[in-house]
Fold this sequence. Notes:
Helix content: 10-25%
Low-confidence stretches: 21-29
Largest sheet: 9 strands, antiparallel
Number of helices: 6
CATH class of the largest domain: Mainly Beta
Strand order of the largest sheet: 4-3-2-1-6-7-8-9-5
Amino acid sequence: MKKNKVIFLVVIVLSLIALILWLTQSSSTFQRELCDFAVDDTSNVTKIFLSDKNNNTVKLVKKAPGNWTVNDKYQAQKLSVEMLLKTMLDLAVSQPVANAAQDNIIREMAVNAVKVEVYQRVYRIDLFNKIRMFPHEKRTKVYYVGGATQNNLGSYMLMEKSTRAFITYIPGFRGFVSPRYSPIEKYWRDYTVFKKTIPEIAAVRVEVPLTPDLSYELRNDGKNFFTLISIDDNRIIADYDTLRVLNFLSGFRNLNFETLINDMDRRRKDSILASPPFIVITLTDTSGVQKTIRTWHKQGPEGQTDPMGNILPYDLDRLYALVNDGQDFTLIQYFTFDKVLRPKTFFTKEAPGEIR
């Protein structure tokens, strides 16, 4: 009996030691706090700061589920934010940087890395995720994201106040995640120009400054019935193609610009803006809010010709566009905007049906 008691005690002690080791060990020989880059629950992330040594900064703030802002000024691209949050959730560590390379990698990160600060909604009292009291925002993680490994399958990362860099990756993804942490503001901004359904549209005014007789306005008279007005002579056009009007208006459901070019050479940009616009579109929604886009032709590639061999003076794929109350100079694609770049004659029996 005494021998059985001793064996039982030994088993208990060994079990306790095994339990302690299991609870304290990490998936490798390095401490968890030195490589704890992943966010276990991204649903409670409230704010993310990204910055680099070139004074580029991005502040992403969650206003509501799926609704984020950039630097307190712009709407954020939903897909870009979701991609970053998924990256933070799935992030894994493959191994520490080799001892021989640690100093070089850390020196390089000191110059080129992006600093990441993550804020989350936490509770001062949180019992088993059941009883939660006193919520507040807390900075939960600060780390640095460096460049890619030589095989482009991992990214270097370093926790704040640590001297040990690690190689991170996303399981099942062949590539590196560094670009997803960009601190450049324009890469996070929402590119929406118009996003209105037909019942949300009160009026659309289309002006063609160089050919004013093609200008018009469509006014919503209720129940999807619109009045077509010729702007140059203020004449109501009764005989128009209703289906074409509805197709035109449905084109405003989701229109985005292609890229921001606010950093274009100032002299060149001023020259473009000083010239007469190609087409000006003003949409007024049912709440009275107006949005205007002004467009200009873009010079085409040298040697561009039509099917007959004639030199074309303009780019057939893209236009310049001034959007967001004149704050942003952008490029837009004909492929995207052709459906709303329509002359007055598009809705009648006349020709042409498009403007170029």
